[in-house]
Each structure stands twice: as C-alpha cells, then as structure tokens.
Amino acid sequence: MTIWNLGSINADMVYALPHLPTAGETLAASNLERFLGGKGANMSVAAARAGSRVAHIGGIGPDGRWALDRMTEYGVDTRFIAEVDMPTGHAIIAVDKQGENQIILYPGANHAIEQDQLGQALSQAVPGDLLVMQNETNAQVEAARMGCDLGLTVCYAAAPFQADAVQAVLPYLDFLILNEVEAEQLRESTGQSVAELPVKHVLVTLGSKGARYLPKDGEALEISAHKVKAVDTTGAGDTFTGYVLAGMDRGLPMPQAIAQANRAAALMVTRHGTADVIPDLKEVLEARFG
Fold first, then answer.
1. Domain of residue 87, residue span
2. What's this protein's family per the entry (predicted)?
3. pLDDT in tens for each of the 290 residues of the chain?
4. DSSP H helix total and E strand total for the chain
C-alpha cells in the first residue's frame, strides 16, 4: 500500500542558543545548520525510513530543488511535488541547551498547491491506502474529502493547531493525532472530549510521558515513552507520527505501531536536526534504552 502525504516542505535553519530568547533580547548563536524540514517532509521521510512506500504531495520554489533531491534520496516518491513561482517554505528554529525549541515559520510554496495537482496525485491511490495531512499547507479540506470518497484511510496530524482547521476536516477523518494541549483546546472549541469525537482512531501524544490511544470501539491505552537525554526535540513528534502511520500501513496492531514509534521518537530527540537525522527501522529495532 501507499501513504499519500499532503505535506509541507521547509528549509529548517537551526540556531544553537544558550537559552530561548525573550521579547527584545538579542542572542548570539553558537552554531547554524540547515536541514530538510517541514512537518510534512519529516513525516514522509520517517514513514519511508520505517519501511513504507510514501508519495509526497507538495510545493517548492526554484530555491528548493535541493529539498526535492534530498527527499528522493531518502526514499520518498517526489513526482507530485510541484515547483511554483514563490520561495520554498522555511523555518527559523532556536534550540537551547536543554533541547527545547522556538520556531518561526514562513509557509511560502506550501500554500500554493493546486487542486489539479492534488487530484492528479490521488487519482493513483487505491482503497486502503493512507492519506495524511498537517496544518501547514492549503487544500486540506479538499484532500480529506477526496480521500474519504476514494476509500482511503484519512489521517490528520493537528499541528500547528487551529481548532477550526481540525473541525473542517473532522467529518472525513479515520485517524486524528494531536498533543495533550491541543486535545484540551479542541474540547473547549467543540464541547466534546477527544474520546467523544466521531473518529475511529484518536492518538494523543504526551511528550516525555508517551502517548494515549483512544479507539472508538475499545478501551483507552497508555504507552510510556523511553527515558533518554534530549538534545533537540525538533521533529520528534513528526517522526513519531510517520512511524505510527508506517506501522498501520504494514498491518501492525496499533499498540505495536505506537510502541515502535515511541522508540523512533526517543532516538530522534538524542540528535540535532530534522528530516536528515530521522532514524531508520533497523536503528529503531536495534536501539537499547536504559
């Protein structure tokens, strides 16, 4: 099967800082690195490295051909990424000594995806394929509706979080992934807890505590995270999501898919960077945690 990802593609400019800046503060960075990033690209690379076939639907500018080449190198099908006449999306990421981050995001070409491009890509999907989206591109509702009509498993990673964006795709979803804060924000907006939503699978990530899985027909399941020394949390959630989707695609029971994703995310936070340093399945399976 195939995972279709309507997803963002960014140049991640990562600055190492002694601490995260406050308003009006000027800080000198001790290091600067450029990585392939964007929640969409991260998830595509993670799912590909976890052993799935992944086709990415997105946009880059003329300055972003390096990102296309890199995604291809990492095993992602890039035929449905269009080059448009605007800059590639980018993120300015500050990372402190504890591994916490602060991000400024410019969407650029990620918001220039044409409906014809989307339709051309998904015309090659077959029932049972997975479709995933995040809130960093345009055309999310159109993609969700199209995926539902085609019999795809429609998944939504609700970040960056906007309650109205989630509610717009909610009628078409089979799987919703969000963090604990976002789950509370959605409850405040809809008046429903995530367990009450009309979605077959809901997964709430809990950071260093792990994840909570809430199936529509079944009991909630808590899966603990592995204890590691974090140096950079950027991209860890995307890695987790990509591995969960790959586990679903490969037919793993959901608890096993989540446990494997937890291992991948634990490895990820021990590394500096985003898509370029996402661990592959062999590394994840061989990893040993204290």
1. 2-286
2. Belongs to the carbohydrate kinase PfkB family. Ribokinase subfamily.
3. 999 999 999 998 989 999 999 999 999 999 998 889 999 999 999 999 999 999 999 999 999 999 999 999 999 999 999 999 999 999 898 989 887 888 888 999 999 999 999 999 999 999 999 999 999 999 999 999 999 999 999 999 998 999 999 999 999 999 999 999 999 999 999 999 999 999 999 999 998 888 999 998 888 999 888 989 888 888 899 999 999 999 999 999 999 999 999 999 999 999 988 899 999 999 999 988 87
4. 9, 13
Query: In total, how many domains does the chain have?
Result: 1
CATH of the domain at 51: 3.40.1190.20
Question: CB atoms < 10 A from the CB of 219, how many?
Answer: 7
Q: Which residues of 94-116 are buried (b: 16+ CB within 10 A; e: fewer)?
A: bbbeebebeeebebbbbebbeee
Binding residues for substrate are 10-12, 38-42, 136, 238
Q: Which residues are annotated as a binding site for K(+)?
A: 232, 234, 268, 271, 273
Strands (E), 7-88: 10-16, 31-37, 53-60, 77-83
Residue type at 150 in one-letter notation: L
**Which residues are known binding-site members?**
10-12, 38-42, 136, 179, 205-210, 232, 234, 237-238, 262, 268, 271, 273
In angstroms, how far is the first alpha carbon of the chain from the final one?
35
> What's the pTM?
0.91
